[in-house]
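User: ok so my PI wants both of these folded by tonight, can you help

Assistant: No problem, let's get them done. Here's the first:
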Amino acid sequence: MKLYRPVTVLVGVLFVLLGGLARLAGPVHVYDEQPNRVTVDGVIGQKVMVKNSSFEIIRLRFVKTLVEENADDEDPPQATDGIFVAVDWEVVGGSEKMLSHEVTLKGGEGTVYEATDETIGASFTSREPGFAETGTFVFEVNPADTAGLELWVKPTTFWTVVVNDYRIDLGIPDQQTADELIANAKPEHVLTRPVMRVAS
């Protein structure tokens, strides 16, 4: 029977070890150790760049009821046991199209709220270069969960690439501030479609 010399055995073991290390350093392993979503912080009133497009959260309002844009006088407004949060926004298109981004509202206690009006929804999509779109997202929120409100803007993607999630501080530092804003909430908000115009 042929016996392998020690050097040959060592070379074989070395190749096995190198093969194992190569597998560990492959894309799947590296990808698992590196998060594919990076959080970028912003604040209300700040223009946030996504490639060379942008979005901005312009202002926030608390409102007590919602009214459909073309509602009849007999149609009652939509009321809530909580409070409605209306968030005005603007998206400006650039030459590089950005991914579609889903938008949710996160309360201070960690509850995630989705937009109340499903026909309008809550997402940012790419606009033609030189054009801007403005609109309002509306969320129904627990009044006790309004301190530290954040708007989360997350790209919709199934690709295994690193993407940015945007966390926008809506400027309500504590519950006392939130309670004062709620006490002065507008009686109603009219639900309207987003409006497109030439960017200024």
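One down. Here's the second:
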Amino acid sequence: MTRADLPTTPASLPLTIRAVPGVADTEIHAVHHAPGPVGFDTVEALADQLCAAYGAHLLRAVVFGELTTAPPVHDDRWVWVRPTTHTGEPGTSIELTALAPRAPGDATVARISSGASLVTHRMPDGSGVRRLVHCLPRPAGTGTYEQVTCGLEVVEAALREAGMTPLDIDRTWFFLADIGSSYSALNKARDEAFDRWGIRQYPASTGIGAGLPPGAEVSLIVEASRHETIRATGEAEGAAEKDLTVLSTTLQTAPSRYGPRFVRGNLLRMAGRRTVNVSGISSIDPQGHSITSEDPSVCVDYAMRSLVGVLAAGGTGPQDICSAYVYCRDPAVREAFFAYLAAEGLAFPHLLTYVPVCRPELVFEIEARAMRGEPSGTEQQEGATA
């Protein structure tokens, strides 16, 4: 598939699309599934046509599967995850995240670095919103610790250029080439950065095994948002307290209680959208112990009920999921996941791959973003409780 092969109207694009309008823009998540490997020109073609059809700006592309041609060196708005524990199905899947201004001038999207995009717009009350989406598919450095440290330093610099700070970070992803031996290095580098930045309200996050591009021990995605009050002169006065609620489920404890500094999920109410970010979640009980079984459906069921619990705590449900990444150890786990969806009557867009999850004894992990529009100004009202 090349750029010239694709249609140019939304209804005819070969994509499953979820679009959620806000005050000034519409956030678009689009998924394409291919039965086998594709070239990166297919990713670029899909992105070009999606953006042309919706008048949108690409924020990031995530590829699960095999690519026959490498991503470009001049554009880092992507993360590529290859399967490592099984190399058969499920083919190659592509997710594109884009933003379309609802009217000319409503929202501005600017590339501030190879992998970073800054979204800005003004709310009806005169306040401003800033959002940074930053992909780092191949950070500098040798080894996981150095690459995570360097990657987070690059993020810090991008936040500074965007008029933001690390305290604005809402969501992170860490894809690790060897999660079994490098998860502790990730935690060390992240803890040092969080301590330096003074972060006490941890973001939602995922740390997962992945096949990565040559030379990469880790690939990162970081998202941040900021709500600014405006002086009468029209100048930014400073960051207003944004409506960010930590979410949990009775089935699991907070990860920070047994080590990693992230939360089970969070709810962000801003710019006319309710967004629930669910961190990577597996079968871990309220005491932090792994739930294992020879029957993978036991592990899938516990993780999925935990996911639904976090979504419900944020006032959303599976029907609101616009993006989900599914990690399975092998095809038996994949079939257990599909069986769960069928039994519960669930269907939502997702990418799926075969990789090791956060603990060697666990076989399944899932993360999700659920979104729905809500009237402007509700971010100032009482939020959902965890």
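Residues 1-103 form one domain. The helical segments are 40-54, 143-161, 179-197, 296-313, 331-344. Good luck tonight!
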